[in-house]
Amino acid sequence: MTDGSDGAGKVRYGGDYNPEQWPEDVWDADHRLFDAARIDTVTVGVFTWALTQPAPDVYDFSTLDAIVARAAAAGRQVVLATGTAALPPWLARAHPQVNRTDFEGRRHRYGQRHNACPSSPVFRRLSAELARRVARRFAGNPAVVAWHVGNEYGGACYCDQCAAGFRSWLRDRYATLDRLNAAWYTTFWSHRFTDWADIEPPSALTEHWRGPDHTAFPGITLDYLRFMSDAMLANFRDEKAAIRESDPDTPVTTNFMGMYRPIDYHRWAPHLDFASWDNYPPDDDSRVRMALAHDLMRGLKDGQPFWLMEQTPSTTACRDTNPLKRPGLMRLWSWQAVAHGADAVLFFQMRAARGASEKYHGAVIGHSGRSDTRVFREVAGLGAELERLGPATLGARTPARVALLFDWDSWWALEISDGPSRLVRYQPTVLAYYRALWAAGVDVDVLPVTADLSRYDVVVAPVLHMLKGDLARRLEAVAERGGSVVTTFLSGRVDEDDNAFLMDVPGPLGALMGVRVDEWDARGREFVNPVRLGPRDFPARLIFELVIPQGAEVVGTYRADFYAGTPAVTRNAFGAGHGWYVAAGLEQPGVSWVMDQVLDRHGLRGPYPDVPDLETTARVTPDGSRLLFLLNHGPAPVEVPARTGGVDLLTGARVEAGQPLTLDTHGVVVLREDQ
Ligand code: GLA
Ligand code: ZN
Residue 46 CA: which ligand 1 atom is closest? Predict the structure, then answer.
């Protein structure tokens, strides 16, 4: 069981359950309600360090034993946390160096969670020891189906222990100060380092002003981001290794957060046995963003199914305003996760906390313990549906012909750069290109730049600011064999060290794109330069590169300013395929126009590209059946003709080709198409 998909025989259903917070007589009531809602999996122990190790030399498993035993007795499967995500107070008192030092240089005192210094030897020793003891206690327990290490790793620390860790990470990376000085371009502003000990973490006290994105030396800041991500990965690996001492094969994971900037999940992914993530969209309008995040999480383990580890059944609590998920949305978004590759649908939280900061966070069971609530009814309804579905989707893969490259280094390098523009941001740009693909109904694999690209017709690499390794060559290979490669402004600008290429922009992508960028103009949000594409003008904002074709054909031109009439979008014939260069900050309609041209060339379209708000995705099961998911995100019912015959897996009904499929508002159809 390495991909975490089997074992339950169906999509796992349940979530975070913290019964240590209430008396045991409530536990029976909880489990009765779980039965009613077809809950089969609970994640327990995430914040139990202080209970399990109440003092340095005391380990007390009575609470965790009882929780796991009660869940097992009810036939439930358990995702067991190592419990290291929040420190016990005694630990911080005895070892203040486990507390983080913030960007302003303030050593924090005891409080909150997710805030241990990742470089603290004490934290590393004691967190691994707790994981070791929990694993030893529960290894071999048939109820335990996965290990959940830590919780939502993130943030950063700037303490002296981290400074020392940074220096040793740098020694591993560069070996000599000469190489480090070259990488960081330290001759600039007289920074030439002659002693490793002189290197400081880049913070408000050193290289930064106006916060974490404004740095005198992006190379230093970039390496600190990489180091911090690796330091926390080392924490995860400490605990995983400790688990493996007594449990050789139960899968180990930790819960990611989708597009989360501080942690390079691509560097973490090989160390997880399956990927999982927590989906907390900021609003009701995040359907495309959630789809992208699901695809990114699926891409972490080469397309293997992932788990939706947390979502709220109703509301969050941490935002200034916390809108309620409208009736049907929880179900729709749960199916969206499955449509994009989830083999588990789990909630935070199964029963509401009585006190502290999350007492108003939505829960399957509220404070009153009732089952006759809308939320409980919807949760139970989905539970029944998932049970009826059974194993039909388990292990299924997404048959994508389109890859979108996502790269944390490019994200960091772009957003910590002084110039050309602070307004050009990574996520919204990537999202605009993804949105065009989503609307066309094509399946997309969101992949690291190191991925094998040989199986894709189209590779989209928006704002690929940093170009690493042999990627340019591999993109050329995509075009050579007839594929299309799309990239944009501010791509191919810097090498792995964040130093500019000593050649025309877009650097090593120049041959494939058949252009050279001569100048660039970055403007405020209010400034629009329209771009003529086909018969129409499309607005572009923020960034306008001035392009001189070197063989590429001009597809679109600027309409205004001194560069009116010059190329804004180009297409270069390369081998049997094309390199597309989008030099202008096109808004969504222009991005969609370009992507439609690209998809047309390859005949790539979902079954209903013209029905707005209707999302379609496909999955192919291990036995070769093709599943088509139809998700109606719109405010009104839609009806579309079935493209093929098949079986509606949620109703069991037979569907004939051409027969109308009716989707209510927020409705879902899962069609197993005839082969
Ligand atoms: C995160 C955490 C949980 C909880 C929820 C609340 O996902 O992992 O412990 O705080 O947020 O939304
Ligand atoms: Zn630290």
Answer: 9
